[in-house]
Give the backbone structure.
Amino acid sequence: MPESPYDRLVRLLKRADVIGSALDVLQWDEQVNLPPASQVRRADQLSALAELHHRAVCDPAIGEALAALEGDSRPEGDAQKAAVARARRDYERATRLPAEFVAAKAALDSQAFHAWKRAKSHSDYSVFAPFLSRQVDMSREEAGFIGQADRPYDYLLDKHDPGLTEADVARLFGDLRQQLVPFVKEIVARGVKSRRAELKGFSIAAQDAFLRGVVAKLGFDFERGRIDVAVHPFCSGDGADTRLTTRFDEDDPLTSLFAAVHEAGHGLYEQGLPLEHLGTPLGKPVGMAIHESQSRLWENQVARGRPFWAHFEPGFRQSFSSRLGGWSSEDLYLAVNTVSLEPIRIKSDEVTYNLHIILRFEIERRLFAGEIAVEDLPEVWNGLSQELLGLIPANHGVGVLQDVHWSGGAFGYFPSYCLGNMIAAQLWYAALATLPGLEAEFARGDFSRLRGWLRREVHAHGRRYDTHELIRKVTGADLAPDHLMRYLKERYGSIYLPATR
Amino acid sequence: MPESPYDRLVRLLKRADVIGSALDVLQWDEQVNLPPASQVRRADQLSALAELHHRAVCDPAIGEALAALEGDSRPEGDAQKAAVARARRDYERATRLPAEFVAAKAALDSQAFHAWKRAKSHSDYSVFAPFLSRQVDMSREEAGFIGQADRPYDYLLDKHDPGLTEADVARLFGDLRQQLVPFVKEIVARGVKSRRAELKGFSIAAQDAFLRGVVAKLGFDFERGRIDVAVHPFCSGDGADTRLTTRFDEDDPLTSLFAAVHEAGHGLYEQGLPLEHLGTPLGKPVGMAIHESQSRLWENQVARGRPFWAHFEPGFRQSFSSRLGGWSSEDLYLAVNTVSLEPIRIKSDEVTYNLHIILRFEIERRLFAGEIAVEDLPEVWNGLSQELLGLIPANHGVGVLQDVHWSGGAFGYFPSYCLGNMIAAQLWYAALATLPGLEAEFARGDFSRLRGWLRREVHAHGRRYDTHELIRKVTGADLAPDHLMRYLKERYGSIYLPATR
């Protein structure tokens, strides 16, 4: 029997994906293992493989298979139909960018990264501004190549989260902001003191053993995955070989744990995608926001909750025998759920984190709408920081220059983080409604029912549905910020605003 | 200025080499990090990259550049001339094998590997014989494609060690055998008892720390290299990123140490090759025998010697405080230099090891000369084992089936190990003659002069000279077994046959 056009498409996509996955391994190795003086060699390897990957992704045979499937040889069933549509989208986005543009962008990314590092270390925005300007221009150009010159920011959002538009995000973030800003003010006004900073001298070997136990209990499959150490925690690879990283600090045992649980949430998504469709749209994640919802749900709704700690607190105390002598369970729970206003996003908690994202979205939105210019950013940043967080960063290094993302032209990416929080909360209440007694199982150390539900409801579909469609399908409702606000009020109200219980 | 044909050749060779080096990283990762259930994915990645690498190596543009350099655009100077000749050889060998042959060989390698594993675990040669037969046939075919159908074993030897012929090896091994067999008999007859088996309960963390210290002292550059753990120790990568592995056993601290030093010897060669020529014939190792000479020289001549232990013994004792209480320095030195007749090559010592290789060469030689058939191997093996080692293996699993090499059709490879020992000894005496006071420096923990000499005399030339040429150039004499015999008699005579001192 001759190969059907759909089978041919799948074979070609899988082939390209295998090359991409080899690239992933080299990138993982760069963060985890690479000797310092081997970086030049690694850069050469990455660029050679990226070129080969790009060539495989743009293979004209993929275009021919797609054309056949869009013509006489219709795909069979809705799943295949969706897969063909997603593959078409990916193929267009890969093939429409001219090689010179891709090369110029790669060169700019590298220059802008180094300029950003210099600018940040000297708190000197002027060093970075020209490169940022060029990145904004190139993002506009990119949108133009894809045929969306008139709505560049819509293109950038959709690129990370299929189906999302600027209008969606503006509405969602506007609503959230209105409710969240006064809530944070209320919490901060209470002045409840966390003892988190007192957690010092926690053996790294014991932290490592404890978090591995937790991650295994949550259901991460170490038969096809591993955990290592990297400066910035991440999850790399796919369901065939899923690699998490965390980082350790003797004087901060909670960061390593929650980083590991967060990355394990990403890993559980990858491992939950149908392996038989690996490398094709039916075996790939929907986008960044859904991905982030999986990491946040495990990190926040699950692992910062009382039932989780009811199960793990004894083991945590045992792992660090002498360290938690004078600590009550409530002390520990408060340390896990410490809220404080910080200028730096990655040091913030799950409540105020969302404000950091709203700030960045507001800037990106205005920038691409032409309402502000690149040179206005420091002032706009500080103004928004005052409005949202009630503080102005001490300098631009901990303000407008704090994040690496813009140096790589990753506009439209930040919103995924906050959208992920919203989706996590919305999925959480859907799970609680469908799975009665769920949290009682957590308290017994059993997380299998939630994992199975997520796998069935979210992971199993791969990229078949876009972000909105999937949320509607699983929760029966449109994406909305109310679930996140409800969750934050329940969890943090009970700790910080006990009168509101 | 337009790119010269030589520069073009170099650029193309480097590009192919970069892809090959990415493949190396994935292979290293497979041995060191790969989760067990991720092997299928890794096989797909390796095969995709191998195909891309092969395509780059066979790029017709390389053939064009070579043709230009062999025609009107002569290379400049002898080094370039040699590089072009080596590149031509590599290009011919890569391009003359038809794709169907390469694919059939890869499939056979995999089948034969699994058959060998089954055969070994059941000590049943008949399971492996048909695959071995096919490998012999394919090696003959391969020699035919390269135009050496009439001398297949010469081709196979030269493939691993440029310049070597069957006649060379037969003469060298014949001479060595004549001197070595009676010497081993004499040693064994003395019945000197080593206490090596008493070394038990050595902390792995302390072993690891100690061997890292040793490897650093020998001059391995950890800025562009690392050491990890793997089941079978190896050295992977190149001078830009050199990765050693060792293995640990609490009850055998010397194996981890000598494996690390051995692999560090390979690593020092890679790191000593001129980095500016990385990926071209002037930046590559000559062949397996020269490579092995580097590992053996550091492992045996240096690290099994009295000056080395004069320096490291105090640290070794300190690392394992309570473990060496009743041990004299001579006890330790004898443990490091234990000689015993074993059926298994990888468990043998540096004296009897050579007999294991002579055995394999003798079999390969007769097999390709048509003097024996694949089905005769068990009998021939046992007969040679009796002649050379004075023992017959208890079963074929520890006899003819003990090594993996033949399952991959790696004929002509084993001789490199013994040739490496010969070359190491020949280089060693050349170094001692040129560098007076060398061993006194070792006793002070200074290995820099030997390392510098090897780098200058051996490493700096890359593949400019073939095996024989390089040995002649460095030592002023043809490769001969006398140096190895002299070294073995000096070292082991002084321990086992004190009357002969």
